Amino acid sequence: MRQWWQQGSPWVWLSASALLLCLGLFMALLLLITSKGLQHLWPAPLVQFQLTEQTEPELGRLMRRQDATDGMDRTLWLVDRGDSLQARDSSPAGRYLLITATELLPERPAEAVLVQMYDGRTLYAWRQPQRTADAFWLQTGTGEQVALPWEQVRAHWLPNQLSWWQKLQLYLQEWRHFLTAAPNQNPGTGGIFPAIFGTLVMVLLMAVLVTPFGILAAIYLHEYAGKNWLTQWIRTSVYNLAGIPSVVMGVFGLAFFVYVLGGSLDRLFYPDQLPAPTFGTPGLFWAALTLALLTLPVVIVATEEGLAKLPQAQRLGSFALGATQAETIWKVVVPQAAPAMLTGLILAVARAAGEVAPLMLVGVVKSAPQLPIDGQFPYIHLERKFMHLGYHLYDAGFQNPDTEVAISLVFTIGLVLLTLILLLNLSAFLLRQQLRRKYRLID
Predict the structure, then answer these.
(1) What does the buried/exposed string (b/e) look like for 243-273 if buried means 16 or more CB atoms within 10 Å of the residue's CB?
(2) Residue 190 has pLDDT above 90, yes or no
(3) Whole-angstrom distance, CA of residue 117 vs CA of residue 177
(4) Residue 237: other Cβ atoms inside 10 A
(5) DSSP 8-state code for residue 225
(6) Beta bridge partner(s), residue 137
(7) Sheet holding 47-49, edge to edge
(8) Which is nearest to 188 in space by CA: 80, 267, 266, 86?
(9) Which of 15, 273, 420, 426 matches a 20 to 30 Å C-alpha distance to 348?
């Protein structure tokens, strides 16, 4: 036993157990987000319920099952009644009901129709046989007939008549609408395309800004700077910069980039538009620059570690063949250290795509009427505010009064955000593997 302790075996097993525990928790979280996120758009059947014998049957969608809290042995169902046929109910209190098993009718009417409106409303009613060229007719539980103009109806289907294959086709169509449409003014409705587009453009712009500065700084520190107190102070500053809270970096970006640099640009190039700011207001470019400064230490440290792993014999061999230091660095050192540089870029992209706190101060908004890239000259509008998936997730989870929709929507947006980060990292990973095979280097 003493020899076992002296060999360090307990620490090996402890480290392995901690690693397995972290991986297990991560996989459980990923499985939870995936399962909950994929359920959000699946077409569920509509059921009938009748509160009293004097009232007419109503249509609804079963949300979840729960036990009674009054001490009685009975099962309750939370039912989504949908929106009003006349106007959207601003309060979720009138939309959701707790019913007992006796109030839930066994029949699932085949003519029950679900209607999605362009304004974000979801309607449950009975379909009428007549279909005119300008209106879609529905019948409420009280027998009242309502005509909906076709230009207001986005989609409609009969949930209780769908086969599994039809549900899958409808599910994919709803996902396409969710990923390509703009959000509605009602919280939790519509699509998230502006948020996806804004996140992607911001991350790519941040990568373009941080990569050259991070690589050049790492090359200077490792290849040119001597081992003195100044170099040690610079490295310490870089390490401390990595520990600054992101919200503090957002405050710095707002004060320096937006007000100082942006205000100076307005006074130099846009004086005729003052006092209305052009660049002196939060926007895409300042958000990307703030995140570039936030992730700069990651790129510097990863690149410098890659440079340190290269054998010194390769540099000496290049010098022996008559190459200068600059030629050695750019033709021998940098190509072989490229995988480490891409490793730093992967870490920077993963962190930048998930940041929310600094973006709230330097450019992200709840709703942006215009995209930062469009067909209007000069086509790329760096001064515009933009939407972001991380902030959209925060807004859907904490600013939506409908908690039932918010919970499901948070998991769905989180799944999209994780997928986007995975695709960005996968692209950089494949490029890194290609460079590794080219130079036969494992860092």
Answers:
(1) eeebeebbebbbeebbbebbeeebeeeeeee
(2) no
(3) 13
(4) 10
(5) S
(6) 147
(7) 96-100, 75-80, 58-67, 47-49, 104-105
(8) 80
(9) 15
H or E segment and range at residue 246:
helix 246-252
At the topology level, CATH places domain 47-180 in SH3 type barrels. (2.30.30)
Q: How far is Cα 169 from Cα 155, in angstroms, rounded to an integer?
A: 13
Which residues, in sequence order, are CB contacts of 365 under 8 Å at separation 6+? 385, 386, 387
d(CA 65, CA 379): 51
Say yes or no: do domains 47-180 and 193-439 share a fold.
no
Three-state SS string over 310-341 comes to: CCHHHHHHHHHCCCCHHHHHHHHHHHHHHHHH
Bridge partner residues of 147 (DSSP): 137
Ranges of beta strands (E only) in 55-144 are 58-67, 75-80, 96-100, 104-105, 112-117, 122-131, 135-139
In this prediction the pTM is 0.86
Cross-strand partners of 157: 114
Q: Residues with Cβ < 8 Å from 61, sequence gap 6 or more?
A: 44, 45, 46, 47, 79, 80, 82, 124
Domain locations along the chain: 47-180, 193-439
d(CA 210, CA 239): 16
Query: Tens of pLDDT along 236-294?
Result: 888 888 888 889 999 999 999 999 998 888 888 888 888 888 888 898 999 999 999 99
For residue 162 the two structure tokens come to 């769908």
Average pLDDT score over the chain: 83
* Residue 378, preceding peptide bond in cis (omega within 30° of 0): yes
263 three-state secondary structure: helix
Distance linking the first and last C-alpha atoms of the chain: 37
Domain 193-439, CATH number (from 3.30.420.40, 1.10.3720.10, 3.40.140.10, 3.30.559.10): 1.10.3720.10
H or E element, residue 345? helix 334-354
Structure tokens at 270: 């846009």
The Cα 91–Cα 93 span in angstroms is 5
